[in-house]
Structure formats: structure tokens, C-alpha cells
Amino acid sequence: MNYILALDQGTTSSRAIVFSREGVIAARAQRDLALSYPHSGWVEADPMALWQGVLAAARSAVADIGAAHIDAIGIANQRETTVLWDRRSGLPLHNAIVWQDRRTHDACEALRAAGHADFISQAAGLVIDPYFSATKLAWLLDNVPGARERAGRGELCFGTVDSWLVYQLTGGRVNVTDPSNASRTMLYNIHRGCWDQDLLDLFDIPRAVLPEVVPSSGVRGHTDARWFGAELPIGGVAGDQQAATYGQDCVRPGMAKNTYGTGCFIMVNTGAKPAACERLLTTVGWSVDGRTDYLLEGSVFMGGAIVHWLRDLGVIGHSSEIEALATSVADSGGVILVPAFTGLGAPYWDAGARATLTGMSRSSGKAHIARAGLDAIALQCADVLQTMRQAPGVTLTELRVDGGACANDYLMQLQADLLGLPVLRPRVTETTALGAARLAALATAGGDGAGGGIAWRLDRAFVPSWSDDRREAAIARWRRAVAHARQWRAEDDHAR
Ligand SMILES: Nc1ncnc2c1ncn2[C@@H]1O[C@H](COP(=O)(O)OP(=O)(O)O)[C@@H](O)[C@H]1O
Ligand SMILES: O=P(O)(O)OC[C@H](O)CO
């Protein structure tokens, strides 16, 4: 039996997971990645430490199986994070600027004030925000001495983390990205499927610094023999949220997934044409077999992070304890948490909102607050999915779930009840890695059929049980609380 190695490079850790062709996990290893915060709002990672962590995790997982049994490698990566390196030496010129980094806030405000929002949204499918790579790369070219001139002469490479890893894995021979990652740079035209000269001009980015864009599935090169003792083909690459969507087999229009990690990332497949929806991002899912699939994306900043916050407050000792505490009471007793600790993401996009805990009475206790915390995760996701349902041509029939907090049965049942849709939890919840493995399996011999023959399998379906009236009442109460949280910041500023 042969295997696929999936590399899931995330913001704070790198995982290597070996899947059998049946989609069963055969080996795994993980390495943590340290971030640095040189100034308020800045978030950086050392590209060499990132690569060494991936290599160490990969070697450990491969050693358990034997390199001779690995057919191919798939990569799923944290997106938008920007690396700039010397084409010849392979050495980075600066730390990677991580997707969470806000240093280009003022540059983004200037772009918005100059009236570029519509053009960017139409070409790239994105809203102007420091989140995406373009302003991060421009910052590097402006602030690393000599970088702009060297980039213009073709001496430097820009890449998102996928490109950086492929470059290192192939011993510097291959410099490519895939459309799912390219579509998060704000330099890629999602309609034409290529780098966009007008966007490059707007951000003043020399074309010579960009990687070639190749399909998400397909062999793009082989690993240098010194890493695993064999030259293994790299058969698939996608940004992690797109890979998770592919891992959930959401390959037809209307199929949606939600990853309940630190934040929640919700994606719905809109088919072979990009769909536009105000307050959501339009992004490339993957390009496979000559077809490009598009997704709508909405993200919620505080998902499982609410559970960590409650743990840090001492309400629970460990994340896994929250379900028992929350279900020890019949309901939240009227308590509502709006977790706008860092503002609100989709569909509100309100950076100024601040968290509120409302509706408390003298009898409100830890259990009510824990329950309000879980409710807030499901309610925020319901808001995003409600917005998705309003997009032209989107009809949702179910939601597939993954990520650490999808282990919580109470949360999954509540999500089904709030949506009025079945929530499906698969057997393998490492769907990001699974998606990368499926893309790689497709590209290699024996990888026939959907997902290269690696199937998606159901663990449990949560069936909605609420009446329309109950659902609407719960959402109406939540929206009142959200309005309160959004108003609070304004009043607070006024008082100062
Ligand atoms: N049983 C649970 N109920 C609710 N949240 C949970 C549970 N177990 C883990 N979590 C939350 O899930 C998150 C971890 O999920 P993970 O997918 O590993 O996140 P990430 O990849 O963003 O680090 C944490 O924020 C944690 O609090
Ligand atoms: O590090 P992760 O896995 O939470 O993913 C980060 C996202 O890709 C950012 O867009």
C-alpha cells in the first residue's frame, strides 16, 4: 500500500500527516513555530525556522513509513504571509510578514481614500485590508535597503508560504505558486487567472519578483534527495482554507465547510465562475484538471479563541471541559457574549466594535457564561452563512465541519439548529491536510476519481430540530446584542 505525505503549515505550527490511499492517517508529526511581535500590530515569523520546522516534522513522519512508500507530497499553507528571498542563495531578506500583521493599515487607508476599492474588488475579489500580501510585499520592497532595485533585476523571489516551501524542498530549482494562494495576494486577477498588470502597477510591484502560477494539482517538481533520501514528487498545493474545502469534498456549487479553529473560516463553493457578494471575499478554491472552482469566504475572528479566553479567565481548566459546563444549565439564562475583542469580521467588518457581555442577572454563573461563549461561536457563523445564502445562485443544503472545536457536540447541534441545515462531521477532521493529500493523489499514478481516490467519510450528522420561530427569535436577540457591541465603542470613544 502506498501513501501520500501532507504538509499543513499553519500560523503557529507545522504538521506532517501521512495518509493511506483509503484516507486513513498512518503517521503524523508536528513542530511549533514561534512568532515575533517587533512593534504593536506587527507579526513576523523567521522563514528559515518555518522551513526547518516543516522539514523536521516531514522527516519524522516519513521515517515512520519509509520514503519508498510515499507516492507524493501535498502542501496546504497559511495564506497571505509574505516571504522575500534571494533567488540564488535562497536566503530570506527579512522575516516573513504574517497575515495577521497590521503595519500597512495606513497604506490601505490611502488606497481606499484614493478610490481604488471597486477596481481591486472587481479584479482580485478582495476588500482592501493589510491582511493580503500586496501591501506587505510593497512594504518589504520599500524598507529593505536595495530590495526594489534587486527585485526589478530579477534577483529576488516573492512568495507566499507555499512557494517558499516548494523552493526549499526542491533545493531552489522550482519557484511556483497555485491559483488559490495567488488569489490571496491582491495581485492576481481571479477572472483571467493570471497576475494583473494594473494591480502590479498600483502596488508598484516588479513582475520579475513573482512566481509562476501552476495548477493546484499536478507535479511541480521533486524534492531534493538530501531531505528524505529520495526524490519525492510534489503533486498538490493549496492555501489551507481552500485545501480544507477540497478535503471536505465540497466540489459542487452550494457545498460549504466551516473550520472551527482559533477563528472560524467558512467557505462555500460557487462553481466555475466567481460569485460576488458584498461583505464576503471571492477567492479561487483550486484548479484541477483544467477547471477552476471559486469560493465565497467569510471569516470570524473569535471562534475556539473564546474557549481559550474563558480558560484564561478560570471559567474552565481546559477547552474540553466547556461542553459539560455549558450543558449543566438549560440555557444561558439570557446572557449573550459578543466576542468583538479585536472588532468583528464578516459580515460586519467593524474593527471598532468591542466585546460585550450583556443580559446578566444576579443568578448568572460560570455555566451561563460558558454557554454564552459557545453560543457566540455558532451565532457568528450563522451570520456569515446567512449572508452567503443571499449571494446570487447560492443554495446551501448542508454544512461540513472540521477544526478543534468541532469535537463539541453541543456546539455542532446548536449550529444545525441555528441554520436549519444538517451539520456533517467527517471521520477525519484533519481536512486541511486531507485536502492537500487529495490534490497530490490526483496528480500521481493510481490517483483516479474524485480526490485521487481518497474518500470523504461521515462520522456524525447533526440534524436541525428548532422551529423557524425559535430560530428567528434567537437570531434577533443576537443581532440586538451585536448592535450594542458596535455602538459601545463609539460611546466609549466619545466619553474619552
Ligand atoms: N471541546 C471543545 N469545545 C470547544 N472548543 C474547543 C474544544 N476543543 C478545542 N477547542 C478549541 O479549538 C481551538 C483549537 O483548534 P485548532 O483547529 O487546533 O485551531 P488552530 O488550527 O486555529 O490553532 C482552540 O481555540 C480550542 O479552544
Ligand atoms: O494558520 P491557520 O491554519 O489558522 O490559517 C491561517 C489562514 O490561512 C489565514 O488566511
UniProtKB/TrEMBL annotation:
ADP binds at T11, R15, T262, G304, G404, N408. Pfam families: FGGY_C, FGGY_N. Residues 257-443 form the Carbohydrate kinase FGGY C-terminal domain. Key enzyme in the regulation of glycerol uptake and metabolism. Catalyzes the phosphorylation of glycerol to yield sn-glycerol 3-phosphate. Its EC number is 2.7.1.30. Sn-glycerol 3-phosphate binds at T11, R79, E80, Y131, D240. Inhibited by fructose 1,6-bisphosphate (FBP). It catalyses: glycerol + ATP = sn-glycerol 3-phosphate + ADP + H(+). One of its GO terms (cellular component) is cytosol. Pathway: Polyol metabolism; glycerol degradation via glycerol kinase pathway; sn-glycerol 3-phosphate from glycerol: step 1/1. Keywords: ATP-binding, Glycerol metabolism, Kinase, Nucleotide-binding, Transferase. It comes from Massilia glaciei. The keyword Nucleotide-binding applies. Residues 3-247 form the Carbohydrate kinase FGGY N-terminal domain. This is Glycerol kinase. Glycerol binds at R79, E80, Y131, D240, Q241. GO terms for biological process: glycerol catabolic process; glycerol-3-phosphate metabolic process.
